[in-house]
Amino acid sequence: MSEAKQIKASIDDQVVRSEVVELDAxxxxxxxxxPILKTYKLYIDGQFPRTESGRYYVxxxxxxxxxxxxxxxxxxxxxxxxxxxxxxxxxxxxKAPYTRGQILYRMAEMLEGRREQFIAELISMGSxxxxxxxxxxRSVDRLVYYAGWSxxxxxxxxxxxxxxxxxFNFSLPEPVGVVSVVAPEASGLLGLISTIAPLLVGGxxxxxxxxxxxxxxxxxxxxxxxSSDVPPGVVNIMTGLRAELVDHMSSHMDVNAVMYCESxxxxxxxxxxxxxxxxKRVVCLEPQSLxxxxxxxxxxxxxxxxxxxxxxxxxx
Amino acid sequence: MTTTNDPSLNFSTDWKYAPAPESxxxxxxxxxxxxxIDGEFTAPAQGAYFDTCNPATETNLAEVGDGSEDDxxxxxxxxxxxxxxxxxxLSGRERGKYLFRIARMIQERARELAVIESMDGGxxxxxxxxxxxxxxxxxxxxxxxxxxxxQYAFPGREVRPLGVAGQIIPWNFPLLMAAWKIAPxxxxxNTVVLKPAETTPLTALKLAEIxxEADLPPGVVNIVTGAGAxxxxxxxxxxxxxxxxxxxxxxxKRIQKSLAGTGRTYTLELGGKAAxxxxxxxxxxxxxxxxxxxxxxNQGHVCCAGSRLLVQESVASIVIRKLKHRLETLVVGDPxxxxxxxxAINSRAQLDKIESYIDRGRKDGLNLxxxxxxxxxxxxWCRPTLFIDVAQSHPLVQEEIFGPVLxxxxxxxxxxxxxxxxxxxxxxxxxxxTDKGSKIFKVTSRLRAGVVWANTYxxxxxxxxxxxxxxxxxxREGGLHGLAPYVSLT
Lengths: 316, 490
Fold this sequence. Notes:
The complex is a heterodimer. Chain A has one domain (56-313): Aldehyde Dehydrogenase, Chain A, domain 1 (3-Layer(aba) Sandwich), CATH 3.40.605. In chain A, 45% of the residues lie in helices and 17% in strands. Chain A contains twelve helices and ten strands. Chain A has helices at 3-14, 18-26, 75-94, 97-113, 115-124, 129-149, 153-157, 190-201, 217-226, 242-251, 265-275, 298-302; strands at 56-60, 66-71, 159-160, 167-175, 178-182, 205-209, 235-238, 257-260, 281-284, 305-313. In chain A, helix 9 (217-226) links the parallel strand 6 (205-209) and strand 7. Mean pLDDT of chain A is 92; it is low at 3-21. Chain B is an alpha/beta fold. Chain B folds into two domains: 32-270 and 469-489, Aldehyde Dehydrogenase, Chain A, domain 1 (3-Layer(aba) Sandwich), CATH 3.40.605.10; 275-454, 3-Layer(aba) Sandwich (Aldehyde Dehydrogenase, Chain A, domain 2), CATH 3.40.309. Chain B contains 14 helices and 20 strands. Chain B has a seven-stranded mixed sheet, sandwiched between helices. Chain B has a six-stranded mixed sheet with strand order 9-8-7-10-11-19, sandwiched between helices. The model of chain B has no long low-confidence stretch (mean pLDDT 96). Chain A binds chain B through residues 156, 159, 161-165, 167, 169, 171, 174, 176-177, 256, 265, 268-269, 271-273, 275-279, 281, 297, 299, 306-313, and chain B through 138, 155-157, 249, 252-254, 256-257, 259-261, 268, 270, 425, 440, 444-445, 448-456, 459, 461, 463-467, 469-474, 476, 479-481, 489.
């Protein structure tokens, strides 16, 4: 037996997956290919840094097996994200609604293309295959739903006001600005999409804290966003601890609004108290409501809009 | 082209305005007003009263009840009872009819209300009779019509009232603010407890008389007069499902904080520091007139006042010259005189605040201009004031003064104008003056403010939503959008 054949035989003993054997046989016999593991990162300003703090936590599945070393974002990461989100705001808000709609639709396309990857991630974090498929498919569909609203919600929520004087006067929704988002803990993908999509289509930029226990989909969704012509800084995604970040996310003076999607009464009070520092708008949503059909509504877009009224005289 | 001859205008002619005082003998004021709770005027529990004075004469007009926590709680209870037993069960159509009735009664008593408004608050009668009172009536009329049509305001949603609304209003537009608060609340099926400002309670108490006369079910509208502590008691009452506040950003933040974690909702209509932007291609005479109206309307006691003039450098000297000339023609004095442009400052405390800002500007060596018009001996007065070339970071530019004080800054490009206009924590309103339509849309869309006037300023209408971005508040009042803060949608 040649040396190569001996090695092959020994590998055959170890390898259980037959296709590897076949592939190896086809390649003339090699050692088992070591899979490339993904480094799970943050997404800030269109880039994928690890946390500046260098901290991480080990994400495990239900039976305690390690899935990944996930970034434990710091307050500094959050502040950097706000700087990026603020910088991106004017440009994103000024984009034609048609363009924003196309970009959201592009996100749906990219998500659909990575369907199997998201399903696999959800399964590895404990979802049954059927549930993972449903969650992924609904996420894609929800993006498409909101993409379609991009140039319509303004018509639904605006008004031409019949004033009594000789003026033309109209009221239009405009995005509120930079939004801090605490995404629901229980949902790895659909929760993220349900919070981000209505904000984005409405022209806001955001910094999102993803689920701690179901963190795998967040960096992967960032890859989807990054390849969908969403400008850098429009969406920034962090993984980490709510307990560490929620105070900071709601007290930062350059944040205009907070979307909080957990049900911790203490945290809600913290968020609402901090909001008063600069009169932030606060919207608290029941986490489970984001999985349900009513999470698809133009009123979700309106939650993060300001109404601007513009007057002009009528005359010669 | 250089014009060396400064066409200074000479106003010291023999032509004087003859006095044109509005009579006040038809006004019926009681010497003492109790609290309006559960459909009755009732004495405050602790028997305390305070005086409300005429800021133009410093004489007392009447004494009004100082509502304590007990009084507030009783008012909220009566509002809750009225909500549960009567108002929330009434059809929208019947609710609307009550509001129509109130609107009509305000119109009937418009003259009396206007005179009282000017006496109690110091605003020129020309403004109270053409703006405050007619708009208050119009507001009731507008929202009356919504009461039975709410399903059309919120497509795809079921509309429900919130319950009892606690409402706190300022002293700058006393009856109008009461109308802004009460009309949409009642139209959507809520009941209210209103606390008027301590320096201007009289027209709200007159409104209480109208509410009584209109036979509104007891408890649907309660009016509890008092100062800050009365308002704080109202905010603290857990039976108020909703708080609506118009006033300073400082107090607004305190209210927002105190409601944290309670699940109770709020709308806040807070301060402003609006930029009025004049471009070189504007109709300059109209623009100057608009700037004058923007800052000197109601003595500058207007949250959306155009208190910062941004003028393009190329026309700055012309605009400033015209502005100075125009200021010299403004008549400061008796609010009840129909020729008066600028009435009395609302209170001694407010006058002190305004003067401390003017002193600050003087001390910092800023370029100050005040008109030379005579002011009465008695009363609280402030001449129209300009500060020319003030730095963006100066407190006069950053902070709300709430008086007839205008800062002037220049700019060269549209970018610079927008940057400066947006560079305060506020975002209530703004003004743009240019004859180029495309520039109007470009600039108005980039101002981070809730109300933007182009080639006009300080216009209001019940059908038109009003409210701020950023630290100028949360929510809208007026128009279809003004219904949303008073309903829950399912």
